[in-house]
Design a protein that fits this description.
7-stranded mixed sheet; 7 helices
Length: 201
């Protein structure tokens, strides 16, 4: 039994290492990973970091099945818009279906790559992504795109949780964000799980 347990742990570790070296989005068929409760990177903490206001236009990159999207869309009412961008049409459709079932309005879904966003310059009041940056093969390009689409003075919030195969450390995130022209403001949470708030200069 002990050998079996050690073998299982070795397989999980090997899979995590492979996934870390080969970044990719969580497949729709494994969406249970993104639907589970998110300790430390809670919706309430995201709200504190993002500070969404009614009427704003905010972008979420990689919404999964809407764990954060649905409450954020509610916080933007009345008159606000939550733009969702994801590579996978299935994730977007799933989130839109949940929004319809819960009577959540103001969501616009776009299938596209985070390194080539189909939005105009300075067209968003803010943007956020949670457990997504490390899944993007070219993180620097994605951060440059976030800098481009968020208006001057706008916010960019990045959520990370230690243990995620694609975890981006606070130091790495800050270095890459600043290279993309985003200014570090603060981090809410702990080294294990946090939201980093950046500002578009």
């Amino acid at each position: 039994m002990r050998r079996l347990l050690l073998l299982a742990l070795a397989v999980v570790a090997a899979a995590a290492l492979w996934w870390r070296r080969n970044p990719s989005a969580c497949p729709y068929g494994q969406r249970f990973w993104v639907e589970a409760p998110h300790p430390l990177i809670t919706r309430a903490r995201l709200r504190e970091a993002l500070d969404p206001q009614p009427g704003e236009r905010i972008l979420e990159v990689g919404p999964g099945t809407g764990y954060y999207a649905l409450p954020v869309a509610r916080w933007l009412a009345p008159g606000g818009t939550l733009e969702l961008l994801d590579l996978q049409r299935e994730m977007l459709d799933h989130t839109l279906q949940r929004a319809a079932e819960q009577d959540v309005a103001g969501i616009v879904a776009t299938q596209a790559d985070a390194t080539r966003m189909p939005y105009e310059d300075a067209s968003m009041d803010a943007a956020y992504l949670v457990l997504v940056l490390g899944e993007i093969p070219d993180q620097d390009a994605a951060l440059r795109e976030l800098h481009r689409v968020v208006r001057p003075g706008g916010r960019v919030v990045v959520g990370e949780l230690l243990g995620d195969p694609h975890w981006v450390s606070p130091a790495t995130l800050r270095r890459r964000a600043e290279a993309a022209g985003l200014r570090y403001e603060r981090r809410l949470g702990t080294a294990i799980g946090s939201f980093t708030r950046l500002a578009r200069g």
